[in-house]
Amino acid sequence: MAVVHLTGMKTPDLTEPGTRRRLIAAGAGALIVLHVIGTGIYGLITGPPSHDRDNNTPSDPVVSAPADPAPTAPPRLPVVRASADPESFARNVATSLFAWDTASGFMLLDYTLVILDVGDPTGAEQAGLASDVAAYLPNQQAWIELRQYATAQHLTIDNAFVPDAWDTALEQAQPGQLAEGTVAYTIEGTRHREGLWNDEHVTSAHPVAFTMFIACPPEQNCHLLRLSQLDNPLR
User: Fold this and answer.
1) What's the pLDDT tens digit per position in 174-193?
2) DSSP characters for 57-78?
3) Helices 126-136 & 108-116, crossing angle to 10 degrees?
4) Would you list the DSSP string of 112-137?
5) What average pLDDT does the chain have?
6) d(CA 75, CA 86)
7) Domains and CATH numbers, the chain
């Protein structure tokens, strides 16, 4: 795996909205294609049968009005819950990173900012992190295509652990090269997708693995520094 540099980057001015969007646009993600495998389930809904008052009197016509639809909650963006515990924070980031819905009305930028909002508060790693996140999301053209199928995605986590390779990295790091509380967590899980294909509800599942580099300063909540290439984690 290529070495991820966590220092020495010029700090951009993230208070300017245009700057944040340019950082996101700079990281072009690979096209993610929905694999649709599933079986549609259809059903017919019939109204209640009419009942005669008696055997000699014709029954009145039964007028069936459609029931009021159950209220649905408005779509919401995922939220990375703050935590000072490295593993809890890593799991929270992983869940939010893979949670998106093309039918929600939100755009790629909205989902990207969810992750950048828990990034390095100094801004030193934000440009690199923006590029990392872009590689995990569909690019703009893929997003438009997936939106035709109302594609949504989420992640189930099977395992989260500090990789053995991180111990080697700590041994080789120069004094002061890594901030106190910096740690790597490898996530192994399953990416789930669902959508509509020819009016059929279809799903797919694919195993994924990746490593995130996070910093948890003493007595402070953790923040995200960088992400490894997807399916190329530290072990």
Assistant:
1) 998 999 999 999 999 999 99
2) SPPPPP-PPPPPPPP-PPP---
3) 130
4) HHHHHTTB-TTSTTHHHHHHHHHHHS
5) 80
6) 29
7) 75-235 (3.10.450)
Residue 165: pLDDT above 80?
A: yes
Give yes or no for a contact between 225 and 6, defined as CB atoms under 8 angstroms apart: yes
> Would the pLDDT of 211 be above 70?
yes
Q: Global pTM?
A: 0.71
Going from the C-alpha of 111 to that of each of 55, 77, 95, 97, 207, the distances in angstroms are: 64, 7, 12, 8, 21
Closest CA to 187 of 220, 160, 214: 160
Does 131 score more than 80 pLDDT? yes
What tokens appear for 230 in the block? 């997807």
Q: Please give the Cα distance from 48 to 169 (Å, whole number).
A: 69
Q: What angle do CA 19, 23, 24 make, to 5 degrees?
A: 120
> Which pLDDT value is given to residue 67?
57
pLDDT over 90 (residue 168): yes
Tell me how far apart the alpha carbons of residues 96 and 138 are, in angstroms, rounded to a whole number.
15
221 within 8 A of 81, measured Cβ to Cβ: no
Edge-to-edge strand ranges of the sheet holding 152-161 = 100-101, 152-161, 182-197, 200-215, 223-227
Can you list the positions of beta strands (E) in the chain?
A: 100-101, 152-161, 182-197, 200-215, 223-227
pLDDT given for residue 58 in this prediction: 45
Amino acid sitting at position 225: L
